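Agenda item 2: 2-keto-D-gluconic acid complex prediction
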Amino acid sequence: MSNKPRILVARAIFPDLLAKLEESYEVRSNQADAILSPEELQHELSGVVGALVAGSERIDANALAKAKDLKIVANISVGYNNFDVPAITAAGVMATNTPDVLTNTTADFGFALLMATARRITESEHWIRAGKWDKWSIVNNPLGMDLHNTTLGIIGMGRIGQGIAKRALGFGMNVIYHNRSRLPEADEKACGARYVSKEELLKTADHVVLVLPYTPANHHTIGAKEIALMKPTATLVNIARGGIVDDAALAQALKEKKIFAAGLDVFEGEPQVHPELLKLQNVVLAPHIASATEKTRRAMVELAMENLRAAIDGRKPPSLINAEVWKA
Ligand code: 8YV
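Presented output:
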């Protein structure tokens, strides 16, 4: 048996990056990419000093129950609602995520999803593939909603929200936002965005994009009551997390044409998608791919690897979430 430190790589990663890890560590890897059950995860975490995980791995007291040697859980994701941070901190384990490296890729995708939704791009493609396009028509082709000269409302104005706002300026959009706390004036200026209440945003935006982190307090930030405030011509895009939107209420509202359309990259209980959403044409569906370019996914894995390596070598990980553990 080698005396290299043991680590877990809980999901499939790029083979060359796995090979790099294998140079320094004894790696338990999951290149088959099967999702670990809570029992399997608990078992896999026992005896390792570090773990690379993703949103599919819930790291809580139960997962950590046998992880006596664990120094770090490095999420390959900026969002870390799969982490019970107080439980990880109580276990004396460092928790890290992957901010910054995915900001622009994710903002690009938010904008792409917004455009696809407003201009009915996937619906149009389904229509062609179904053999329904028999002639060009002024009124009987899928007619969408404009983006230029309309108001974009962003809920959650962190790095990705600000990235979307900057892209919207190029489209001549008027940008309003709502956030837990207001941005410093200089940041508002840089992205040309005006702070408003959530209610004003929902009432006045032509397009609403959700980019806030999931927390229990943000559960169903958008439900039937909030959708009722929106314009019947408005679109709603969720690239944040499943559970931020009440998907059942959204499906009902889309069915009744209470809003024009929605674009969803994340779902409550994903990879399951609410069956009513699957029946609708006025919703664009994507399988949680906002950060999914090869370059960015590699950068995310590399940052998670750097976090892991730092913690094991006794250096402070660059994107440490629970600094208390480091100080202790
Ligand atoms: C990840 C994401 O791909 O970073 C995030 O928060 O949503 C995505 O970029 C996904 O969460 C991996 O678990």
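Discussion summary: The longest strand covers residues 151-155.
Owner for follow-up: CH.
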